Amino acid sequence: MVGMAPLPFEKERKIYGPGLRTWQLTKALLEEGHEVLLICYGIPSAYEKGVLSREVESPAKELRYLVLNHEKYEDGQYLAGLARQFSPDCMVAVTLYPCYVAARLELDEPLWADLFGHVLGEAQARASVYKDDSLLFHYWNQEMRIIDRADVFSCVSQRQVYATIGELGLVGRLNRHTAGYRFAHCIPISIPTEKKEHDLQVLRGRDVSEDHFVILWSGGYNTWTDVDTLFVALEEAMKVDGQIRFVSTGGEIPELDDQTYGHFQELIQDSPFSDRFILKGWVKTEEVHNYYYESDLGINIDRDIYEVELGSKNRIVEWMNYGLPVLSSRVCELTEILEEHGAGFTYPPGDAETLKDKILQLAQDREGLREAGARGARLAAQLFSVKATTTALREWAAHPQPAPDRGQERALDQSREEAFRNLEKIVQRQKEMIAERDARIRDLEMVFHRSPLYRIYGFLNLARKKVLRKG
Fold it and tell me: Tell me, what's a Pfam family for it (predicted)?
């Protein structure tokens, strides 16, 4: 298996969605009695002391678990060597980057690729926030490599399954060999870990009083988070109800989005109710569950875009597991399931007025909220356990087979392979150009810092500071 780290049982600084997803599929295979070699890319911002390539002690004797830095993870010969030593019956790759790495390995074992969310929708969201369409190629190139190589796929929603089938058609894999073959399966997000007891007071009597109505956000603020609607609705609700408090655990995601959370902080700073917004930042992983126990409502705010429409939400499933009632924009498939079972509350995306009214209504019905939270917990246990969500993977792993078109000539092969080769040459040249540019900048900085002009500038700047201190 190849995936992303850290995993939930590690006591690292942060646990991101890709790590939760990796553990979901790993745990499913371990429960079936499989022996697993798991090789993960360590997400740099999740580790307090940086990512050191190493073997990590695992919670199961059937699992050998390695965490690698970027350089090691990109070394295809090294990974292929580890795989050959292990001699697997199949490969399972979890989330985009590990799937891309696995697709490039020169190995013949059948490959299951878990596409954790629709990456081209994510690319669109990032391009929108950063106002830069050049980001699209990076995602497209990786996705197409995966779609071309993998034998079977899993997705987080049935909607994403259909999107993936469309991509398979575009690369010529809906052909005469695969007619009737089930390429893609839905594996919903599962409850990530066992439910923990409330073991530490983190909010009540500290940041908020016992009678405050606490609305919780937990996790990263990514490109699809609608912080503008969230802020407007909360501020308007706070004008009416002085008991409302907003608490946030989490923050920016350096590898993906360093703008959305900062923008939200700026909005809060200018608010007359800024003291009612309690931003805790990223808290210790082992403490997060205590915030669920001490909050009244979990809030999820998404933009109405394809990434969300085709995806799902870890935070919602985790809140459900702890019986925390959920209020969410009605965009992804999961929110429709919540609404259908009366296990949560929704509002139209981007509608701050309706969201404000929902918040005020729920703040006055705490008993009704608790009942909805209990329904959510029962629904999570029924639909979103690891076992309930991973049936398709378990069945395939028992008798893994390549796709019927493996080794068969495809009508689109020649032109597509030539395009891939050309595109990868472009990517490599871009990397070389960036490295050359950085080297030139370093050389120029060294020359400038050694020049007489720079020394004169430094002397004048020092003299100016002395004059200012005397003044």
Answer: Glyco_trans_1_4
* pLDDT one-digit tens code per residue, 325-334: 999 999 999 9
Tens-digit pLDDT profile for residues 46-90: 887 777 789 998 888 999 999 999 999 999 999 999 999 999 999
Helix (H/G/I), strand (E/B), else coil: 279: strand
What one-character DSSP code corresponds to residue 70?
Answer: H
Asked if 238 and 161 sit in the same domain, the reply is: no
Domain count, the chain: 3
Print the domain residue range for 347: 213-384
Residues 431 and 363 in one domain: no
86 shares its domain with 50: yes
On whether residue 196 sits in a domain, the answer given is no
